[in-house]
Predict the 3D structure of the following.
Amino acid sequence: MALRSERLNLRRLDGGDATFVESLYASAQVTRTLLRIQGPISIEAAREFCQAPAAASGDHRFGAALHTDGHLVGLGSVRRHTEGRGVATIGYSVLPVFWGQGFGTELAALLVEFATGTLGAPEVRATTLDDNPASARVLVKLGFTVLEVGASEVDSRGDERRVTRWFLSSD
């Protein structure tokens, strides 16, 4: 698998990426934009996150590395839906120091490419928190359409959060 954008290489995570994952999720700026992780995680949890096989979790997890030096700047995931054949969901996070520079859009585009190309999913979905307009802008740039506004999801702490659900059809 060789997925590349103008500035990023997308590669599967491995145990050596645990320190990066731990540092990304140590950022309150990042975790406030997420549903599944609301605070720092241990290095052990980060290692498990990186090494979880896609077959077991159903989640393909990637690091987004800069072409220039190979340093990771973001994480992405693609999950194939079990209930809806042909549907995959993407998620992404970028280090705050790289926000506002188009890296989130490049990363999300690579995840869509993986979902539609490698997995053959004709439909890709994503969910954004209503208080995260930057992530919504990423999806709009990639051609996603709103599926549902003001939906409710429960985060990992049990708090109800308002979200927008998005979809992109490759048909």
Residues 103-118 form the longest helix (16 residues). The chain is about 30% helix and 35% strand. Residues 3-125 form a domain with the Aminopeptidase fold (CATH 3.40.630.30). The beta strands are 3-4, 8-12, 59-66, 72-80, 87-94, 123-129, 145-154, 160-169.
